[in-house]
């Protein structure tokens, strides 16, 4: 069970990274609100088709946890929108660096509410993972860190990280007896409902025109199916199985996949910092996920 969950988490990081790569093509076609709202609508429809027959079986549990499910949808809606929005006013470096803080923020929240207890060795694993992320993001150039400055986009990234961290912690804390795909379906409906008035205020009815653009539809459909419906459903199941802190540390794999995508897709040259950063991230993830530690 745990081995399958860890494999699923690696696959989730791959899917989320692919979503970042694909979303780069959407900046000139749609606004962050239009992309977020559209993908949650499509995601909801797809999940509804596949899960419709199971809704009656879990109807009672859904009704009992409707407020919690709405909160999860709220956190997903704002987290996904703020993350896409942030790149309009910050650099990829800033967004990636701040985004890499999610495992620590998730762990801090989990420790504060007494949800997690981890060992010293696992703390070291988190630290090594972050060092690896720093090497990948800065390309081994410390000057980028010293010149780091906050702006509106940075604040949006931090807000997105906070929302995603709260989503992960609440998912574990509430431990609802509802299958992950049903949680994803109800959360997707909530996210779409929350983003609907925000998108109307921001773009008006222009969002409807996107649904008649073949390129936009292809992007939205990909984002709805793979980085959203499939990846988040797998994430929900894995988080419940392995815990919030162990699952969140796998987020450090995203810069690794990002570096690989740059090399394979954008034909960037493989450099020494890619090797060192990747090795540290992999070791850090292994220490947190698979080692019980020296002292509990």
Topology:
Blueprint: H1 2-23, H2 32-55, H3 59-64, H4 66-86, H5 92-99, H6 102-112, H7 120-138, H8 143-146, H9 152-174, H10 180-203, H11 206-210, H12 214-242, H13 244-249, H14 253-264, H15 272-290
Helix pairs in contact: 1-12, 1-14, 2-4, 2-10, 2-12, 4-9, 4-10, 5-9, 6-9, 7-15, 10-12
Keywords:
single chain; 296 residues; mainly alpha; 15 helices
How would you describe what is shown here?
- The mean pLDDT is 80.
- The protein is globular, with a radius of gyration of 19 Å.
- It has helices at 2-23, 32-55, 59-64, 66-86, 92-99, 102-112, 120-138, 143-146, 152-174, 180-203, 206-210, 214-242, 244-249, 253-264, 272-290.
- It has 15 helices and no strands.
- It has one domain (2-290).
- The chain has 296 residues and is mainly α.
């Amino acid at each position: 069970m745990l081995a399958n969950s860890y494999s699923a988490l690696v696959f989730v990081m791959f899917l989320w990274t692919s979503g970042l790569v694909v979303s780069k093509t959407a900046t000139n076609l749609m606004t962050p609100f239009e992309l977020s709202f559209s993908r949650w609508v499509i995601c909801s429809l797809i999940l509804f088709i596949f899960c419709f027959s199971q809704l009656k079986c879990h109807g009672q549990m859904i009704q009992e946890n409707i407020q919690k499910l709405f909160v999860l949808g709220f956190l997903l809606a704002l987290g996904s929108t703020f993350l896409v929005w942030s790149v309009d006013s910050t650099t990829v470096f800033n967004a990636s660096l701040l985004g890499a803080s999610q495992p620590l923020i998730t762990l801090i929240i989990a420790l504060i509410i007494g949800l997690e207890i981890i060992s010293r060795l696992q703390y070291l694993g988190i630290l090594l993972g972050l060092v690896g992320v720093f090497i990948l993001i800065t390309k081994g150039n410390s000057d980028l860190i010293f010149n780091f400055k906050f702006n509106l986009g940075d604040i949006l990234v931090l807000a997105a990280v906070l929302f995603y961290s709260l989503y992960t912690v609440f998912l574990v804390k509430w431990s609802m007896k509802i299958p992950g795909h049903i949680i994803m379906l109800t959360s997707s409906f909530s996210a779409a409902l929350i983003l609907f008035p925000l998108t109307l205020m921001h773009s008006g009815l222009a969002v409807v025109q996107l649904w008649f653009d073949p390129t936009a539809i292809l992007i939205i459909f990909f984002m709805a199916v793979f980085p959203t419906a499939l990846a988040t459903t797998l994430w929900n199941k894995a988080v419940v199985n392995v815990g919030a802190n162990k699952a969140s540390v796998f987020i450090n794999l995203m810069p690794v996949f990002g570096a690989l995508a740059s090399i394979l897709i954008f034909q960037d040259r493989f450099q020494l910092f890619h090797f060192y950063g990747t090795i540290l991230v992999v070791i850090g993830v292994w220490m947190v996920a698979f080692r019980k530690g020296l002292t509990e």
